[in-house]
Amino acid sequence: MWSLFILARAPGLTVTAGDRAEIARALGGIAGLAQARLMTPDRTPADQPFARDGSGPDLALQLYFASSDAAQAALRADSALARLPVLQNLPPDSVTHELMTARAFPTGAPPPADPFLTFFVSYRGPAEDPQAWLDHYDKHHPPIMVRFPGIREVETYRPTAWTSELPFARAASLQRNKVVFASLADLIAALASPVMAEMRADMAQFPPFTLGNTHFPMTTWFIAGSGD
């Protein structure tokens, strides 16, 4: 599976239910789109250990494609993505995008219902050996993450070769990943659970990398495809 992220940082940007419906209509004509999600920052004051990372993007779109060809077609200049509502009037340098390959780790839980909570994580890198870093992460970290109480989904994303004609800046992450919960309360409970100590211990074993990571709680809606 391929995952396209489109991220907007525009202080003051608000995304209404009407905006979500308009974006969903725009995405409806994209061939090969398996599913899409829209995320906005959860601004609820919360005692979670990554609050220092800030509130995250003001809007994030995640689009899933079953094939590389479908993903690349969506990145053409004549794609509906080039004319997405809400983004059209933003400064060009406030919107970034990145195509990555996605890997899901089964949790045995049912999909969440709208709206739900995505804990959106990005590692900026670089790593001394990116492939070794990515392989180490997928081998060791998600098997711990799937044991968080209340967990619904776990996915990781790694770089892939891609070209784009969209009018957005290109992002280049070492890795992205996410854990999904039904609510912010469930996320906070998970981060306070004994599993978090295992996460920290495992992170201490990561191969060398620089520039750290960020963690953002994002309120999320399915806007195309199905959560089933």
Short précis:
Helix content is 22%, strand content 31%.
Written account of the structure:
By secondary structure, the chain is an alpha+beta fold. The chain has one domain (2-225): Alpha-Beta Plaits (2-Layer Sandwich), CATH 3.30.70.100. 22% of the residues lie in helices and 31% in strands. The chain is built from 6 helices and 9 strands, in the order βαββαββααβββααβ. An 8-stranded antiparallel beta barrel has the order 1-3-2-9-5-8-6-4. The radius of gyration is 17 Å and the shape is globular. 36% of the residues are buried.
Overall pLDDT score: 94
Head-to-tail CA distance between termini: 16 Å
The total count of helices amounts to: 6
Poorly predicted tracts of residues = none
List how many beta strands DSSP finds.
9
CATH class: Alpha Beta
Could you give a short account of the major beta sheet? 8 strands, antiparallel, barrel
Strand order of the largest sheet: 1-3-2-9-5-8-6-4
Q: How many structural domains are formed by the residues?
A: 1
Quickly give the structural class: alpha+beta
Radius of gyration: 17 Å
CATH topology: Alpha-Beta Plaits
Q: How large a portion of the residues is in β-strands, by DSSP E?
A: 25-35%
Assign a percent range to the helix content: 10-25%
Sum up the overall morphology in one term: globular
CATH architecture: 2-Layer Sandwich
Written as H for each helix and E for each strand, in order along the chain, the element string is EHEEHEEHHEEEHHE
